[in-house]
Amino acid sequence: MWYAPPQPNETSQSTELIMTNAAPLFGLVLAGGASTRMRRDKAALEYHGRTQLEWTYELVSTLCLATFVSVRPEQRNDPVRARFPQIIDKEDEFGPLAGIAAALRAHPKAAWLVVACDLPFVTEATLRRLVEARDPERIATVYRSSRDGSPEPLCAIWEPAARAAVSQHLAVGKLCPRKLLIQSDCKLIDLVDPHALENINTPEEWQAANARLANKRTEGDSSEEQRTSISLRVQYFAVLREQAGRSEELLDSFARSPSELYEQLRAKHGFSLEPSQLKVAVNDEFSDWNVRLQHGDTVVFIPPVAGG
Amino acid sequence: MSLFWFSHTALEPESYRSRLTDPAAGGYASFEGWVRNHNEGQPVTRLEYEAFESLAVKEGERIVREAIARFGVLHAACVHRLGSLQIGELAVWVGVSSHHRAEAFAACRYIIDEVKHRVPIWKKEYYLNGDSGWVNCERCASAHR
User: Fold this and answer.
1) Which of A161, A213, A241, A249 holds its CA 20 to 30 A away from the CA of B40?
2) Mean pLDDT over residues B57-85, rounded?
Protein backbone atom coordinates (compact mmCIF):
# COMPACT_ATOMS: atom_id res chain seq x y z
CA MET A 1 0.00 0.00 0.00
CA TRP A 2 2.26 2.78 1.21
CA TYR A 3 5.41 0.75 1.19
CA ALA A 4 6.69 -1.09 -1.80
CA PRO A 5 9.80 -3.11 -0.99
CA PRO A 6 11.99 -3.87 -3.97
CA GLN A 7 11.40 -7.34 -5.34
CA PRO A 8 14.32 -9.74 -5.34
CA ASN A 9 14.63 -9.72 -9.12
CA GLU A 10 14.89 -5.95 -9.37
CA THR A 11 18.26 -4.36 -9.66
CA SER A 12 19.19 -2.42 -6.60
CA GLN A 13 21.22 0.66 -5.96
CA SER A 14 22.97 -0.90 -2.96
CA THR A 15 25.13 -3.09 -5.15
CA GLU A 16 27.82 -3.35 -2.51
CA LEU A 17 25.46 -5.52 -0.49
CA ILE A 18 24.64 -7.96 -3.26
CA MET A 19 26.87 -10.93 -3.84
CA THR A 20 26.86 -12.59 -7.20
CA ASN A 21 24.63 -15.67 -7.28
CA ALA A 22 23.51 -15.03 -3.73
CA ALA A 23 19.89 -14.28 -2.91
CA PRO A 24 19.26 -10.60 -2.11
CA LEU A 25 19.34 -9.86 1.58
CA PHE A 26 16.16 -8.70 3.30
CA GLY A 27 15.93 -7.80 6.97
CA LEU A 28 13.61 -9.20 9.62
CA VAL A 29 13.36 -7.75 13.11
CA LEU A 30 11.71 -10.20 15.48
CA ALA A 31 9.23 -8.37 17.70
CA GLY A 32 6.59 -11.00 18.34
CA GLY A 33 7.74 -12.18 21.76
CA ALA A 34 5.38 -12.29 24.72
CA SER A 35 7.93 -10.55 27.04
CA THR A 36 6.63 -12.65 29.93
CA ARG A 37 9.56 -12.20 32.30
CA MET A 38 9.91 -8.50 31.53
CA ARG A 39 6.21 -8.00 32.28
CA ARG A 40 6.12 -5.28 29.64
CA ASP A 41 6.64 -5.15 25.90
CA LYS A 42 10.33 -5.62 25.12
CA ALA A 43 9.99 -4.03 21.68
CA ALA A 44 8.90 -0.78 23.38
CA LEU A 45 11.80 -0.62 25.85
CA GLU A 46 14.20 2.22 25.28
CA TYR A 47 17.96 1.74 25.30
CA HIS A 48 19.46 4.27 22.95
CA GLY A 49 16.87 6.99 23.49
CA ARG A 50 14.58 5.17 21.11
CA THR A 51 12.53 2.02 21.38
CA GLN A 52 14.56 -1.10 20.94
CA LEU A 53 12.40 -1.93 17.94
CA GLU A 54 13.20 1.36 16.18
CA TRP A 55 16.87 1.01 17.00
CA THR A 56 17.12 -2.54 15.72
CA TYR A 57 15.08 -1.74 12.62
CA GLU A 58 17.47 1.07 11.72
CA LEU A 59 20.55 -1.06 12.18
CA VAL A 60 19.15 -3.87 10.06
CA SER A 61 17.81 -1.63 7.32
CA THR A 62 21.21 -0.07 6.67
CA LEU A 63 22.37 -3.49 5.47
CA CYS A 64 19.28 -4.85 3.73
CA LEU A 65 17.31 -4.06 0.59
CA ALA A 66 14.03 -4.12 2.48
CA THR A 67 13.35 -4.59 6.17
CA PHE A 68 10.27 -5.92 7.92
CA VAL A 69 9.12 -6.40 11.47
CA SER A 70 7.88 -9.86 12.43
CA VAL A 71 4.70 -9.74 14.53
CA ARG A 72 2.01 -12.05 15.77
CA PRO A 73 -1.42 -11.49 14.13
CA GLU A 74 -2.83 -9.74 17.17
CA GLN A 75 0.10 -7.30 17.32
CA ARG A 76 -0.24 -5.84 13.84
CA ASN A 77 -2.03 -2.65 14.92
CA ASP A 78 -0.03 -2.15 18.08
CA PRO A 79 1.29 1.45 17.97
CA VAL A 80 4.94 0.45 18.54
CA ARG A 81 4.82 -1.92 15.56
CA ALA A 82 2.22 -0.40 13.24
CA ARG A 83 4.50 2.11 11.52
CA PHE A 84 6.81 -0.55 10.13
CA PRO A 85 6.32 -2.87 7.19
CA GLN A 86 5.31 -6.15 8.77
CA ILE A 87 5.38 -9.87 8.18
CA ILE A 88 2.70 -11.57 10.21
CA ASP A 89 3.05 -15.03 11.75
CA LYS A 90 0.64 -17.76 10.70
CA GLU A 91 -2.11 -18.15 13.32
CA ASP A 92 -1.09 -21.70 14.22
CA GLU A 93 2.68 -21.25 14.40
CA PHE A 94 4.46 -19.89 17.43
CA GLY A 95 7.80 -18.56 18.62
CA PRO A 96 10.64 -16.89 16.74
CA LEU A 97 10.82 -19.72 14.22
CA ALA A 98 7.25 -18.89 13.15
CA GLY A 99 8.45 -15.39 12.23
CA ILE A 100 11.37 -16.75 10.23
CA ALA A 101 9.05 -19.22 8.48
CA ALA A 102 6.58 -16.48 7.56
CA ALA A 103 9.37 -14.34 6.09
CA LEU A 104 10.83 -17.20 4.04
CA ARG A 105 7.35 -17.89 2.64
CA ALA A 106 6.51 -14.23 2.00
CA HIS A 107 9.61 -13.62 -0.13
CA PRO A 108 10.92 -17.05 -1.08
CA LYS A 109 13.73 -15.68 -3.25
CA ALA A 110 15.23 -13.55 -0.50
CA ALA A 111 17.72 -14.40 2.21
CA TRP A 112 16.94 -12.91 5.62
CA LEU A 113 19.13 -11.13 8.10
CA VAL A 114 17.12 -12.01 11.20
CA VAL A 115 17.69 -10.00 14.39
CA ALA A 116 15.69 -10.20 17.60
CA CYS A 117 14.67 -6.88 19.10
CA ASP A 118 15.93 -7.71 22.61
CA LEU A 119 19.64 -7.54 21.84
CA PRO A 120 20.75 -4.07 22.97
CA PHE A 121 24.48 -4.72 22.49
CA VAL A 122 24.28 -5.60 18.82
CA THR A 123 26.03 -2.98 16.70
CA GLU A 124 26.23 -2.33 13.00
CA ALA A 125 29.67 -3.98 13.10
CA THR A 126 28.13 -7.15 14.56
CA LEU A 127 25.70 -7.34 11.67
CA ARG A 128 28.16 -6.27 8.98
CA ARG A 129 30.54 -9.05 10.00
CA LEU A 130 27.73 -11.55 9.55
CA VAL A 131 26.91 -10.16 6.11
CA GLU A 132 30.57 -10.27 5.06
CA ALA A 133 31.02 -13.84 6.31
CA ARG A 134 27.79 -15.01 4.67
CA ASP A 135 27.91 -18.32 2.83
CA PRO A 136 24.85 -18.50 0.57
CA GLU A 137 25.52 -22.17 -0.17
CA ARG A 138 24.63 -23.17 3.42
CA ILE A 139 21.17 -22.78 4.91
CA ALA A 140 22.35 -20.16 7.39
CA THR A 141 25.31 -18.06 8.50
CA VAL A 142 25.30 -17.65 12.27
CA TYR A 143 27.36 -16.67 15.27
CA ARG A 144 28.66 -19.30 17.66
CA SER A 145 27.38 -18.65 21.16
CA SER A 146 30.05 -17.31 23.48
CA ARG A 147 28.43 -19.31 26.29
CA ASP A 148 28.08 -22.82 24.91
CA GLY A 149 29.30 -22.79 21.32
CA SER A 150 25.85 -23.54 19.87
CA PRO A 151 24.49 -21.54 16.92
CA GLU A 152 22.74 -18.25 17.71
CA PRO A 153 19.62 -18.29 15.51
CA LEU A 154 18.23 -14.84 16.32
CA CYS A 155 21.12 -12.81 14.96
CA ALA A 156 21.74 -14.75 11.78
CA ILE A 157 21.32 -14.89 8.02
CA TRP A 158 18.79 -17.47 6.88
CA GLU A 159 19.02 -18.48 3.21
CA PRO A 160 16.01 -19.31 0.98
CA ALA A 161 17.06 -22.97 1.14
CA ALA A 162 16.11 -23.03 4.84
CA ARG A 163 12.41 -22.71 4.04
CA ALA A 164 11.58 -26.41 3.74
CA ALA A 165 13.48 -27.39 6.89
CA VAL A 166 11.88 -24.60 8.91
CA SER A 167 8.36 -25.50 7.82
CA GLN A 168 8.95 -29.20 8.56
CA HIS A 169 10.36 -28.42 12.00
CA LEU A 170 7.26 -26.36 12.85
CA ALA A 171 4.88 -28.89 11.33
CA VAL A 172 5.98 -31.54 13.82
CA GLY A 173 5.57 -29.14 16.71
CA LYS A 174 9.24 -28.24 17.23
CA LEU A 175 9.66 -24.57 18.03
CA CYS A 176 13.39 -24.21 18.76
CA PRO A 177 15.38 -22.56 15.97
CA ARG A 178 18.66 -23.36 17.74
CA LYS A 179 17.98 -27.10 17.59
CA LEU A 180 17.10 -26.79 13.92
CA LEU A 181 20.44 -25.10 13.19
CA ILE A 182 22.40 -27.67 15.24
CA GLN A 183 21.03 -30.35 12.92
CA SER A 184 21.64 -28.29 9.78
CA ASP A 185 24.50 -27.30 7.56
CA CYS A 186 25.21 -23.76 8.66
CA LYS A 187 28.31 -21.60 8.69
CA LEU A 188 29.44 -20.67 12.20
CA ILE A 189 31.53 -17.61 12.94
CA ASP A 190 32.92 -16.23 16.18
CA LEU A 191 31.84 -13.09 17.96
CA VAL A 192 34.34 -10.26 18.33
CA ASP A 193 32.54 -8.97 21.42
CA PRO A 194 31.48 -11.99 23.49
CA HIS A 195 28.65 -9.97 25.07
CA ALA A 196 27.19 -8.72 21.79
CA LEU A 197 24.31 -11.18 21.74
CA GLU A 198 23.30 -11.07 25.39
CA ASN A 199 19.58 -10.65 25.52
CA ILE A 200 17.46 -8.86 28.03
CA ASN A 201 14.62 -10.64 29.80
CA THR A 202 14.04 -8.96 33.15
CA PRO A 203 13.70 -5.37 34.39
CA GLU A 204 17.01 -5.78 36.26
CA GLU A 205 18.85 -6.82 33.11
CA TRP A 206 17.34 -3.85 31.30
CA GLN A 207 18.66 -1.42 33.89
CA ALA A 208 22.11 -3.02 33.82
CA ALA A 209 22.14 -2.84 30.02
CA ASN A 210 21.29 0.84 30.01
CA ALA A 211 24.11 1.55 32.45
CA ARG A 212 26.59 -0.34 30.28
CA LEU A 213 25.46 1.45 27.12
CA ALA A 214 25.77 4.82 28.85
CA ASN A 215 29.38 3.96 29.80
CA LYS A 216 30.20 2.99 26.24
CA ARG A 217 28.82 6.26 24.93
CA THR A 218 30.94 8.36 27.24
CA GLU A 219 34.01 6.43 26.08
CA GLY A 220 33.28 8.02 22.72
CA ASP A 221 33.07 4.89 20.65
CA SER A 222 30.24 6.18 18.52
CA SER A 223 31.43 5.62 15.01
CA GLU A 224 31.20 8.44 12.53
CA GLU A 225 27.88 8.04 10.75
CA GLN A 226 28.25 8.46 7.04
CA ARG A 227 25.49 10.28 5.23
CA THR A 228 23.90 8.57 2.29
CA SER A 229 20.94 9.88 0.38
CA ILE A 230 17.61 8.09 0.63
CA SER A 231 14.55 8.16 -1.62
CA LEU A 232 11.48 9.70 -0.04
CA ARG A 233 7.94 10.44 -1.13
CA VAL A 234 6.37 13.65 0.15
CA GLN A 235 2.64 14.28 -0.11
CA TYR A 236 1.19 17.76 0.20
CA PHE A 237 -2.22 18.88 1.40
CA ALA A 238 -4.13 22.14 1.69
CA VAL A 239 -1.95 25.25 1.87
CA LEU A 240 1.28 23.28 1.45
CA ARG A 241 -0.09 21.68 -1.72
CA GLU A 242 -0.87 25.15 -3.09
CA GLN A 243 2.51 26.56 -2.12
CA ALA A 244 4.42 23.57 -3.49
CA GLY A 245 2.28 23.62 -6.63
CA ARG A 246 1.88 19.82 -6.49
CA SER A 247 0.27 17.17 -4.39
CA GLU A 248 3.26 14.88 -4.24
CA GLU A 249 6.95 14.59 -5.09
CA LEU A 250 9.62 11.92 -5.08
CA LEU A 251 13.07 13.02 -4.05
CA ASP A 252 16.50 11.83 -3.02
CA SER A 253 17.47 13.52 0.19
CA PHE A 254 20.24 13.61 2.74
CA ALA A 255 17.73 14.63 5.40
CA ARG A 256 17.80 12.26 8.31
CA SER A 257 14.69 13.52 10.08
CA PRO A 258 11.39 15.15 9.12
CA SER A 259 12.77 18.26 10.76
CA GLU A 260 15.72 18.45 8.35
CA LEU A 261 13.49 17.53 5.43
CA TYR A 262 11.05 20.37 6.12
CA GLU A 263 13.94 22.86 6.23
CA GLN A 264 15.04 21.72 2.78
CA LEU A 265 11.56 21.74 1.29
CA ARG A 266 10.77 25.09 2.83
CA ALA A 267 13.81 26.59 1.15
CA LYS A 268 12.79 24.97 -2.14
CA HIS A 269 9.10 25.90 -2.15
CA GLY A 270 8.97 28.97 0.08
CA PHE A 271 6.52 27.52 2.59
CA SER A 272 5.13 30.23 4.88
CA LEU A 273 4.39 27.94 7.82
CA GLU A 274 6.80 27.49 10.70
CA PRO A 275 7.52 23.90 11.72
CA SER A 276 5.88 24.69 15.07
CA GLN A 277 2.56 25.15 13.24
CA LEU A 278 2.77 21.74 11.62
CA LYS A 279 2.54 18.12 12.59
CA VAL A 280 4.30 15.39 10.68
CA ALA A 281 3.31 11.90 9.57
CA VAL A 282 5.62 9.15 8.33
CA ASN A 283 4.08 6.20 6.49
CA ASP A 284 0.53 7.24 7.32
CA GLU A 285 1.05 7.61 11.06
CA PHE A 286 1.79 10.64 13.23
CA SER A 287 5.49 10.82 13.92
CA ASP A 288 8.12 12.60 15.91
CA TRP A 289 10.05 15.38 14.11
CA ASN A 290 13.34 13.73 14.99
CA VAL A 291 12.62 10.18 13.94
CA ARG A 292 15.26 8.69 11.63
CA LEU A 293 13.90 8.63 8.08
CA GLN A 294 14.27 5.39 6.15
CA HIS A 295 14.71 4.76 2.44
CA GLY A 296 11.24 4.54 0.90
CA ASP A 297 9.39 6.46 3.61
CA THR A 298 6.40 8.62 2.77
CA VAL A 299 6.34 11.91 4.64
CA VAL A 300 3.43 14.32 5.09
CA PHE A 301 3.62 17.71 6.79
CA ILE A 302 0.25 18.53 8.29
CA PRO A 303 -0.87 22.19 8.36
CA PRO A 304 -3.32 23.34 11.07
CA VAL A 305 -6.46 21.24 10.69
CA ALA A 306 -10.05 22.49 10.49
CA GLY A 307 -12.54 19.65 10.26
CA GLY A 308 -16.17 19.95 11.29
CA MET B 1 -18.27 -1.83 10.59
CA SER B 2 -16.20 1.30 10.29
CA LEU B 3 -16.59 3.97 12.92
CA PHE B 4 -15.29 6.92 10.93
CA TRP B 5 -15.39 7.49 7.22
CA PHE B 6 -15.54 10.10 4.47
CA SER B 7 -18.19 10.79 1.87
CA HIS B 8 -17.63 12.66 -1.37
CA THR B 9 -21.38 13.01 -1.86
CA ALA B 10 -24.17 14.52 0.28
CA LEU B 11 -24.40 12.97 3.77
CA GLU B 12 -27.42 10.79 4.60
CA PRO B 13 -27.97 10.89 8.38
CA GLU B 14 -30.98 8.55 8.26
CA SER B 15 -28.92 5.70 6.89
CA TYR B 16 -26.12 6.26 9.44
CA ARG B 17 -28.58 6.48 12.32
CA SER B 18 -29.99 3.05 11.55
CA ARG B 19 -26.51 1.54 12.10
CA LEU B 20 -26.62 2.55 15.76
CA THR B 21 -29.93 1.02 16.78
CA ASP B 22 -29.77 -1.45 19.66
CA PRO B 23 -32.49 -2.96 21.88
CA ALA B 24 -30.39 -1.98 24.92
CA ALA B 25 -30.26 1.66 23.88
CA GLY B 26 -32.43 4.15 25.75
CA GLY B 27 -31.37 7.09 23.67
CA TYR B 28 -29.57 8.45 20.66
CA ALA B 29 -27.81 11.80 20.29
CA SER B 30 -26.44 13.22 17.09
CA PHE B 31 -24.61 16.29 15.94
CA GLU B 32 -24.73 17.75 12.45
CA GLY B 33 -22.25 20.36 11.34
CA TRP B 34 -23.68 22.64 8.63
CA VAL B 35 -22.01 25.05 6.23
CA ARG B 36 -22.92 28.58 7.32
CA ASN B 37 -22.89 31.73 5.26
CA HIS B 38 -20.42 33.69 7.37
CA ASN B 39 -17.20 33.25 9.32
CA GLU B 40 -15.47 35.89 11.46
CA GLY B 41 -17.61 38.61 9.93
CA GLN B 42 -16.95 37.64 6.34
CA PRO B 43 -19.78 36.48 4.07
CA VAL B 44 -18.96 32.96 2.85
CA THR B 45 -20.32 31.67 -0.45
CA ARG B 46 -19.08 28.03 -0.37
CA LEU B 47 -16.29 25.92 1.01
CA GLU B 48 -14.05 23.00 0.19
CA TYR B 49 -12.90 20.19 2.45
CA GLU B 50 -9.86 18.06 1.81
CA ALA B 51 -8.29 15.34 3.96
CA PHE B 52 -5.19 13.21 4.30
CA GLU B 53 -7.56 10.30 4.10
CA SER B 54 -5.38 7.33 5.05
CA LEU B 55 -4.26 8.90 8.33
CA ALA B 56 -7.53 10.77 8.93
CA VAL B 57 -9.54 7.56 8.90
CA LYS B 58 -7.19 5.97 11.44
CA GLU B 59 -7.26 8.99 13.74
CA GLY B 60 -11.05 9.35 13.37
CA GLU B 61 -11.52 5.71 14.30
CA ARG B 62 -9.28 6.15 17.33
CA ILE B 63 -11.41 9.09 18.48
CA VAL B 64 -14.68 7.18 18.16
CA ARG B 65 -13.19 4.20 20.01
CA GLU B 66 -11.96 6.49 22.75
CA ALA B 67 -15.44 7.97 23.13
CA ILE B 68 -17.06 4.53 23.34
CA ALA B 69 -14.57 3.37 25.97
CA ARG B 70 -14.55 6.60 27.94
CA PHE B 71 -18.31 7.16 28.20
CA GLY B 72 -19.43 3.53 28.02
CA VAL B 73 -21.87 4.13 25.18
CA LEU B 74 -23.23 1.32 23.01
CA HIS B 75 -22.42 2.54 19.51
CA ALA B 76 -20.93 5.61 17.90
CA ALA B 77 -19.92 6.71 14.43
CA CYS B 78 -18.80 9.81 12.56
CA VAL B 79 -18.93 10.72 8.86
CA HIS B 80 -17.20 13.72 7.31
CA ARG B 81 -17.93 15.24 3.92
CA LEU B 82 -15.16 16.07 1.42
CA GLY B 83 -15.15 18.20 -1.72
CA SER B 84 -17.03 21.37 -2.57
CA LEU B 85 -20.02 22.28 -0.36
CA GLN B 86 -22.75 24.91 -0.66
CA ILE B 87 -24.28 26.94 2.17
CA GLY B 88 -26.61 24.79 4.27
CA GLU B 89 -25.08 21.47 3.31
CA LEU B 90 -24.06 18.92 5.92
CA ALA B 91 -20.31 18.88 6.59
CA VAL B 92 -20.12 16.33 9.38
CA TRP B 93 -22.40 13.90 11.21
CA VAL B 94 -21.82 12.31 14.61
CA GLY B 95 -24.19 9.79 16.18
CA VAL B 96 -24.13 7.94 19.50
CA SER B 97 -26.55 5.45 21.03
CA SER B 98 -26.37 4.51 24.70
CA HIS B 99 -28.27 3.21 27.70
CA HIS B 100 -28.86 6.71 29.07
CA ARG B 101 -28.89 10.19 27.55
CA ALA B 102 -26.09 11.81 29.56
CA GLU B 103 -23.33 9.59 28.11
CA ALA B 104 -24.77 9.94 24.62
CA PHE B 105 -24.54 13.74 24.73
CA ALA B 106 -21.08 13.65 26.29
CA ALA B 107 -19.68 11.14 23.80
CA CYS B 108 -21.17 13.05 20.88
CA ARG B 109 -19.56 16.26 22.02
CA TYR B 110 -16.24 14.55 22.67
CA ILE B 111 -16.16 13.11 19.15
CA ILE B 112 -16.89 16.37 17.32
CA ASP B 113 -14.44 18.34 19.49
CA GLU B 114 -11.62 15.86 18.99
CA VAL B 115 -12.29 15.48 15.27
CA LYS B 116 -11.96 19.24 14.83
CA HIS B 117 -8.60 19.28 16.60
CA ARG B 118 -6.92 16.04 15.66
CA VAL B 119 -8.06 14.70 12.30
CA PRO B 120 -6.11 15.94 9.26
CA ILE B 121 -9.00 17.64 7.45
CA TRP B 122 -8.71 21.13 5.98
CA LYS B 123 -11.37 23.67 5.11
CA LYS B 124 -11.00 26.39 2.52
CA GLU B 125 -13.59 29.16 2.58
CA TYR B 126 -14.57 31.19 -0.46
CA TYR B 127 -15.77 34.71 0.35
CA LEU B 128 -18.25 37.00 -1.32
CA ASN B 129 -15.47 39.46 -2.23
CA GLY B 130 -13.67 36.79 -4.27
CA ASP B 131 -10.96 35.96 -1.68
CA SER B 132 -10.44 32.55 -0.19
CA GLY B 133 -8.58 31.21 2.81
CA TRP B 134 -7.63 28.13 4.79
CA VAL B 135 -9.41 28.12 8.14
CA ASN B 136 -7.31 28.08 11.35
CA CYS B 137 -4.21 28.64 9.33
CA GLU B 138 -2.30 31.70 10.47
CA ARG B 139 0.28 32.89 7.94
CA CYS B 140 -1.56 30.89 5.31
CA ALA B 141 -2.80 34.18 3.89
CA SER B 142 0.69 34.90 2.58
CA ALA B 143 0.18 31.80 0.46
CA HIS B 144 -2.09 33.69 -1.86
CA ARG B 145 0.28 35.33 -4.22
Assistant:
1) A241
2) 97
Give the dihedral sign, CA B22/B55/A242/A275.
positive
Distance, in Å, from the CA atom of A111 to the CA atom of A140, rounded to the nearest integer, reads 9
Show which of A218, A238, A265 is a domain's final residue: A218
A243 interface with B at CB cutoff 8 Å: yes
Distance from CA of A308 to the nearest CA of B (A): 6
Residues B64 and B118: their CA atoms lie apart, in Å, by: 12
Please give the Cα distance from B47 to B104 (Å, whole number): 30
Which CATH number belongs to the domain containing residue A298 in this structure? 3.10.20.30
Instruction: Measure CA A173 to chain center.
Output: 28
Task: Answer yes or no: is A65 within a domain.
Answer: yes
A83, closest residue in chain B (CA to CA) = B55
- Would residue A283 be called left, alpha or beta, if left means φ above 0 and alpha means ψ between -120 and 50 degrees? left
CB of B116 within 8 Å of a chain A CB? The answer is yes
What tens digit of pLDDT does each residue of A197-217 get?
A: 988 888 888 878 877 777 665
Average pLDDT estimate for A41-57: 84
Which residues 258-287 in chain A show a CB within 8 A of chain B?
Answer: 272-274, 277, 279, 281, 284-286
Bridge partner residues of A299 (DSSP) = A234, A282
Task: Calculate how close chain A gets to B64, using CA atoms only, in Å.
Answer: 15
Our CA-based measurement puts residue A284 at a distance from the nearest CA of chain B, in whole angstroms, of: 5
Architecture of domain B4-134: Alpha-Beta Complex (3.90)
What digits encode the pLDDT tens for the residues B88-130? 999 999 999 999 999 999 999 999 999 999 999 999 999 999 9
* Alpha carbons A176 and A174: distance in angstroms, whole number: 6
Distances in Å between the Cα of A22 and the Cα atoms of A17, A61, A97 are: 10, 18, 22
